[in-house]
Amino acid sequence: MKALRIVSLIVILSFLAAACTSATSTPEATTAPPASSLPDLGGKKIIVAVENAYPPFNSVDANGNGMGWDYDAFTEICKLLNCVPVFTEAAWDGIFEATAAGQYDVVADGVTITDERKQTVAFSDPFMSIIQVILMRADETRFTDSKGLTDQTDLTVATQLGTTNEAVAIELVGESRVKSFEAFDAPVLALLSGDADAVIIDEQAGLGFMEINVDKMKMLNITDQVPEDLGFVFPQGSDLIDPVNKALAVMETNGTLDTLYAKWWPQPAQ
Predict the structure, then answer these.
(1) Is the distance from CB of 268 to CB of 148 less than 8 angstroms?
(2) Domain range summary for the chain, segments of one domain joined by +
(3) Closest by alpha carbon to 265, among 204, 201, 184, 185?
(4) What is the value of pTM for the model shown?
């Protein structure tokens, strides 16, 4: 799948307190088009784990309702496959182990596909490619590139525990300088409060936090950054993997994925 062509942003609500509240959404089943060659799952309920703290992929609005790219994408998948997505909030810590044990049918949380994770769970085909970036306060002058951050050994970097963001942060500055948090939004809060000097974050989420915190943060690219593929996560051997891959292929061909990209990462006005 082509790389993500998205420049700007999400709407994150001031839901940082509400993000701890479980949000569950169960849309109605929609039968696949009669002429479709896609599998028909017969209205099966699919338990979809979302963190609800990783906008624009998933978050909750002021009323506690789930929203984001993951919600829209898997709802569209179920329209094609005749299934019912039951979105269930799940903590990031332990999410792969819980999925492997059958607690969830699928994880939709902007998850990077890695060989290490494949030892525990399985993945769909990639649906997006991303890069990681450095987020810093707008008035930061002590470093102007990733090397400057690396070289100043008194600076700390915040990130989320157990993510590829954390792995990149450790590679950049060493484990002793990395502050890892369980919740996705906590590193940004640490940055804004002065408890950290930088955040390693996926570009799409970083743009979202910058939009909400206008003029408070800026972003730097990481030198020699290699794009990462994202995919949905399944228990190994899941019989949902092939149907979901087929639905994703249809969504790429008919423009649905492009429409969802444009909705959650709209292009800036020219």
Answers:
(1) no
(2) 18-129+228-264, 132-221
(3) 204
(4) 0.75
